[in-house]
Amino acid sequence: MFAQIVSTKKPDGKTYKYLHIVESYREGRTVKKRRVASLGNISQYSEREIEQIIRTLESLLQHRTTGSLEDFEAQQVLHFGVPYVVQFLWNQLGLTEAIRDALRAREVTFDVARYVQAMVIHRLVDPSSKLRLFHTLDDLYLPDWGGEPWQLQHFYRALDYLVDIKPQLERVLYARLTDLLNFRLSLVLYDLTSTHLHGHACPLGEHGYSRTHRPDLEQVELGLLVTPEGIPITHEVFAGNVSDKQTVPDILKRLKEDFAVEQCVFVGDRGMVTEKNMALMAEAGFPYIVGFHKRGRIVSDALLEQFADVNAYHELKDNLRYLEVPAASVDDVEKAEGVRYILCYNPEKARQDAAFRESALEEAETGLKALAESLAKPKRGRKPTDKGVMLKVADLLTRKGVEAFFQVDYKDGILTYRRDEDAITKEALRDGKFLIRTNTDLPAADVAQSYKTLMGIERAFHQIKNFLDVGPIYHWNEQRVRGHIFVCVLAYLFEQEMQVLYRRQWAHDKAVAESLACVEEQAKVLAELESRWYTGEAIVRELRRWKAVRATFLDKEFVSVTKATDQAKAILTSLGIPTPNKTLSVTKVPSMTPDE
């Protein structure tokens, strides 16, 4: 039985409302209704009063079909945006099937794909330990994969399986991303970074050149190979004391054998390329583009003086100028036939270099002035020695990195100093400049632009090490260390895929805006587009704000998505992902037995 309001129009033209108690019954296959009682005309009551009457009646009838705000009970707020997008892209790449296929011959007792997906989502939502993930799983919107309970040890075991199938999985990802993103690999970028470990049990852990500025801790090296758009192709984990150049042969072998890449240009830093590695690249058919540090022997003072006029350089987009210089002008002992050199100049970087140097010079002068005044004051005890004073001066200037730019003298208790303007002028020639070496026949502009994209790898390392919090690593087992890093790289892959898809649609929208005939409308649309030129990190941060709510209402439990922001809607549209239903699931709350 339930309450029902019936409206009736009388001959006088007025409409009256009557409240009836109605009962449903079945007659054969037909469901019918009959009036049990009429509670009379309720037209004189307000909507609020009518609602209260109905609630009271339904409570008495013990068969409630409507409710009030008092019946709504929010149980939990869930992270929704990131899990929803990652699950869509995950399914698009067919990762669950790929993982299951790779493990088909193994006796696996749990769904590894389910655990890997949860770790990847968690790395993007709240990068932290597997233990914290296990304790906060209920805070994530995760699909029901059969309803089997989560087990902490399965997260760690999933890392082992993930490393075992890494080659197969990377090949599948490469093939599917090639189709999905429609790219042909003609340029690869490679770089190396390190992350430190806690403990001394991992066989890979070694002391080496620490890019995390923790030389006291053991570390591992991570080599990452990416496309120009930043999509990771493969990665390798090396012992912490391996040098850059030692890692190149393994990467070249994988590029050739595992991914069947027959022709592409290898882009890396100076430390990557030795005579042996260049021979390997030639054998593999990979030309190279490598950079040299501006204070290296390649970028000589003579070269910088000869090509000091930056107005002679060619303009390139993204605040970069370039000039191909004759090979004869470059002092390179490894010079080979067909090698070319491009000198590059970044005006913005030049201004930053000059400002940084001037700040360091001023700080050094302040320190020297304070030291000179201190030495001039008479003091009791032993007088400072010439050697002791000059050691203090050397320490001060070295800490500021300006030891080459001052002339300092200490005589008869008086410290004098002045800037070496000739040395400063010579150093200023290096501001914002770097040299590129290549054996390709690409135009110089393409070479310069290709090397500039190497910064994409630097951003990738920044994302993996900072935003995705790859380290410090607390696993002691080598397999677990490799698995943890693989999960971080997978998380970065999804973040970068979001950025690539989003920016391609953004570029299309910009081209459409630029074709608008109305200047005012064009300016308005372009300004709006510029305000949402998102990185992958910005996309993830926006998606993190999008939540879902698990709640109960009367005898139903449901998951409802909160209203998406305009930014989140634009992101979904750009990624080609459908807007989710407002209500994701509805289930009946299990009835409680008297004993419960």
Automatic annotation (TrEMBL):
GO annotation, biological process: DNA transposition
Top-level taxon: Bacteria
Pfam families assigned: DDE_Tnp_1
GO molecular function: DNA binding; transposase activity
InterPro entries, alphabetized: IS1634_transpos (IPR047654), Transposase_11 (IPR002559)
Residue span(s) of domain Transposase IS4-like: 189-493
Record protein name field: Transposase IS4 family protein
Annotated organism of origin: Alicyclobacillus acidocaldarius subsp. acidocaldarius (strain ATCC 27009 / DSM 446 / BCRC 14685 / JCM 5260 / KCTC 1825 / NBRC 15652 / NCIMB 11725 / NRRL B-14509 / 104-IA) (Bacillus acidocaldarius)
Taxonomy of the source species: Bacteria, Bacillati, Bacillota, Bacilli, Bacillales
